[in-house]
Amino acid sequence: MANARESELHYPLGETLPQPGEALDLAPGVRWVRMGLPFALDHINLWLLRDRIDGREGWTIVDCGISSDDTRVNWETVFAERLDGLPVLRVIATHFHPDHLGLAHWLTERWNCRLWMSATDFNLARLASSSTVGMGGSAAAAFFGSHGLTDEDSLAKIRDRADYYPKMVPVVPSSYRRLMDGTEVDIGGRSWRCIAGYGHAPEHISLFCEEAKLLISGDMVLPRISTNVSVVDVEPEADPLTLYLDSLTRYLHLPADTLVLPSHGKPFTGLHERVDQLQEHHGERLAEVVAACRAAPTHAAGLLPVLFKRKLDLHQTTFAMGEAIAHLHALWLRGELRRELGADGIYRFVPA
């Protein structure tokens, strides 16, 4: 959902964007790469950090893009023109989602280097690349059906999306180096501290450099849209929204003038304001959910027009269903709503 308070943020580079195959200098030793995506959210930001490992000079890549011919071609242009003749020394993935991990196997093989990421997301990616987890297939369709999505055409299309993740992440590297909350990573003589975040992914890793006042926020803090926070079929009673909102408070300890490098949108300052906006946004959505449940027993599918005012395609509907369930679960698991299973096999929520 678009940020109505976006004017409170500042974009130091204005409307300047790197074109496909380009890398834009942001700060000494930090370059911004932008790759296309085949969704309504049509791009992902990736980052190049000047590095030195075991006496070798080169670069670290943060996030990879999806596995596609276009992404590989654009990466090859970056390698030829924007690495100053130096190699890639490591690849860091903030989390397991396809736009962040899709080309990790190709990149690490191409440069004979190691993938670094959290253990939780690495192992889930290994599972998902051979069997879609929470993003399509019969289990996802049944799960959404139990939360009120009964349109047979939509359910059939969700069943047909069993290859959703493997198409964009066909292979995950067989080995990796683990990142955890608080891990300090030396990248080119600068210390980058890992900040684990929960709710959007099982163990999302953001990277903060105090010396440069830079935060690679991944998907945890985005300037223009709110981060998707979903319940999926493999963890059907999860409470990711509470985890996400709790995780946001970790960023309030960073300097107010930190330059945030998000995975989608443009680099910005105003981190504390954005955290406040996101907390306010979800507070408003939770109030709308409570009001709907007070009016009548409500399932997640019935909340879609309440929480999402625009028309949704199927891809967006699956994310919207996950997010609607997340808002219901936050209220249910804190005791404000009660969950009831109807004779039709659908969960509805009422005031506790």
From TrEMBL:
Superkingdom of the source species: Bacteria
Enzyme class: hydrolase
Keyword hit for Metal-binding: no
EC number: 3.-.-.-
Ranges where the Metallo-beta-lactamase domain occurs: 43-264
One family name in Pfam for this protein: B_lactamase-like_C
InterPro entries: B_lactamase-like_C, Metallo-B-lactamas, RibonucZ/Hydroxyglut_hydro, Sec-metab_biosynth-thioest, WH-like_DNA-bd_sf
Alphabetized GO MF terms: hydrolase activity
Keywords: Hydrolase
PANTHER family, alphabetized: ENDORIBONUCLEASE LACTB2 (PTHR23131), METALLO-BETA-LACTAMASE SUPERFAMILY POTEIN (PTHR23131:SF4)
Name of the protein this chain belongs to: MBL fold metallo-hydrolase
